[in-house]
Design brief:
heterodimer; A: 189 residues; alpha/beta; seven-stranded mixed beta sheet; 7 strands; B: 123 residues; mainly alpha; three-stranded antiparallel beta sheet; 3 strands; 8% strand
Chain lengths: 189, 123
């Protein structure tokens, strides 16, 4: 297998994590050509009733759809966005998704702050650079970056940015912030 | 499994997905196929014994230029696990070659990150 660096086909892998319903799908779709990506997984009896789906039809499909986006930055340089599955029972997929990732965006809904704790723990343990993007939903109470930092018990160097996951421009800024943080993290190693 | 898997409504999509592979969940090929592994079809004559399914053909058609496993699965609207089996078949017959996920994620350099930032700014 040829594993030499190929300038012609460089791919950057970014994860978009966060609780179920935090806006991951919206964010990936706002900035990239959006494609669903399916993995096969069997819904077991155990998982019935586990999903916290207020007002959403309970899914009984046995394939798991993940959000998957692609942004061509220039010829031969492509950025791939992978949304992490929001439900706890899909943790087994995270290691594969995180493999080779450059960094992650943890999307936060301030109304359900605790939903992102697991993602933050995971990336901290794995040593993957991440930033917090606070999705400013209509009706969500505005918090300062410091409020969020304290609530999430974040290291001071982890950027906390506000965003509107629906906006292409906003998502673009989030990704630029993440890349800046990745660069800082690399310099510190 | 209840023993009635063919009648179980929830088993439906799984049955359909792996029906494409003749029920196989492994191809016998041990090559590591990461989501970001690049797949490209080979041009040399093939002496393999594989009877190509329409899905195999579709992969070969898409992979005339290097594509990631994730993109192939997405484009074919097939589950990743199914695509891995089909890719294993094609690897066994040397109809495709695969390359490790591109180096940028494993050995990122400041220059490449800068390029990504510039690329994002120019979007």
């Amino acid at each position: 297998m040829d594993s030499r660096p190929s300038e012609a086909e460089l791919a950057v892998k970014i994860l978009v994590a966060g609780g179920f319903g935090a806006g991951k799908t919206t964010m990936v779709a706002s900035v990239s050509e959006m494609r669903p990506l399916r993995t096969e997984e069997q819904l077991t009896e155990r998982s019935i009733g586990v999903d916290d789906l207020d007002g959403v039809e309970r899914k009984t499909t046995t394939t798991v759809a993940m959000d998957f986006g692609r942004i061509t930055l220039r010829t031969g340089l492509v950025l791939y966005l992978f949304g992490t599955p929001g439900q706890d029972r899909f943790w087994f997929m995270w290691d594969e998704l995180a493999e080779g990732a450059l960094g992650a965006v943890v999307l936060v809904d301030t109304r359900r702050l605790a939903d992102c704790f697991a993602s933050i723990d995971y990336f901290e343990r794995r040593g993957l650079p991440f930033i917090i993007a606070v999705n400013t939903f209509d009706g969500a109470k505005p918090y300062t970056a410091d409020d969020i930092r304290i609530a999430l018990d974040l290291d001071p160097e982890i950027p906390v940015v506000n965003c509107d996951a629906r906006s292409r421009e906003s998502t673009r800024q989030v990704l630029i912030s993440l890349m800046g943080h990745v660069m800082t993290a690399m310099a510190r190693r | 499994m209840t023993g009635h898997e063919w009648l179980d409504e929830e088993a439906g999509p799984i049955v359909r997905a792996f029906w494409l592979t003749g029920g196989r969940t492994e191809s016998g090929n041990r090559t590591d196929l990461d989501l970001m592994t690049l797949v490209v079809r080979t041009t040399e004559p093939v002496y393999g014994s594989l009877l190509l399914s329409p899905e195999h053909e579709a992969i070969l058609q898409l992979a005339h230029q290097p594509l990631t496993v994730a993109e192939l699965a997405s484009a074919l609207d097939l589950a990743v696990g199914v695509v891995r089996v089909l890719l294993g078949d094609l690897l066994n017959d040397r109809r495709i070659t695969v390359r490790a996920p591109s180096s940028v994620t494993r050995f990122p350099t400041t220059r490449i990150i800068e390029e990504v930032i510039h690329g994002l700014q120019a979007l």
